[in-house]
Recover the amino acids of this structure.
C-alpha cells in the first residue's frame, strides 16, 4: 500500500504553515498587542499616520485579514478566500513601504510583497490533501472561488489603497504649501 500524500502535499503544507503562521502572528500584533505589537489603538494611530482612515477601523481590517487569513491558510480552510484576504492586506502594507524601495533593510516592501505573493500562490494552487479543505470535500475551495475571491479583494484593495494614496498626496501638498507660505 502506498501513501496517499506526495511531495506536493507536503510542500503545500509547509508553505501554508509558514506563510499562515507569520501572517497570523502579525495580525495578532495588530488586534491584541501580542508578540510586541501595539494592539488596535496603537496600530490605529500608526495606520492614520500613514494615510489609512479611519485608523482604528483600518487596523481592525488589516488585523482580521492577517490573523483570519493566516490561520485559515495554515489550516487549509477556504483557501481561495484566505489567500485573497491575506494578499489584500499585504498589498496595503506594500503601498506603505513602496516609497522606501524594494529591500526590507531600507524599509521597503520586499517582505510584505513576498507574503502577499505566497498567499496568492496558495489561493491559486490550493491547499493540498493535508488540509481541512480536502477533509471537508473542498466545499470552501472550488475552482470558481479563486477568481471571485482574488477579483473582489483586488477591487477592494485598489479602492482602499487609492484613497490612502490620495490622502498622502494631499497631506504632502498641504505641508509643502505651508512651507511655501512661511
Amino acid at each position: 500500500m502506498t501513501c496517499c500524500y506526495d511531495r506536493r502535499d507536503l510542500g503545500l503544507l509547509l508553505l501554508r504553515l509558514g506563510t499562515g503562521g507569520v501572517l497570523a502572528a502579525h495580525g495578532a500584533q495588530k488586534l491584541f498587542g501580542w508578540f510586541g505589537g501595539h494592539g488596535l489603538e496603537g496600530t490605529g494611530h500608526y495606520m492614520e499616520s500613514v494615510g489609512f482612515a479611519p485608523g482604528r477601523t483600518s487596523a481592525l481590517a488589516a488585523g482580521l485579514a492577517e490573523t483570519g487569513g493566516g490561520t485559515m491558510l495554515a489550516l487549509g480552510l477556504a483557501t481561495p478566500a484566505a489567500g485573497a484576504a491575506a494578499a489584500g492586506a499585504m498589498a496595503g502594507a506594500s503601498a506603505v513601504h513602496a516609497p522606501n524601495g524594494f529591500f526590507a533593510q531600507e524599509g521597503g516592501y520586499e517582505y510584505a510583497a513576498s507574503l502577499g505573493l505566497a498567499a496568492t500562490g496558495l489561493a491559486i494552487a490550493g491547499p493540498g490533501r493535508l488540509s481541512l479543505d480536502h477533509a471537508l470535500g473542498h466545499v470552501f475551495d472550488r475552482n470558481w472561488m479563486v477568481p471571485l475571491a482574488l477579483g473582489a479583494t483586488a477591487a477592494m484593495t485598489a479602492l482602499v489603497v487609492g484613497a490612502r494614496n490620495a490622502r498622502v498626496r494631499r497631506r504632502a501638498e498641504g505641508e509643502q504649501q505651508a512651507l511655501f507660505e512661511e
Remarks:
- The chain is about 75% helix and 0% strand.
- The two ends are 81 Å apart (CA to CA).
- The helical segments are 7-32, 39-49, 55-75, 79-97, 110-125, 132-135, 145-181.
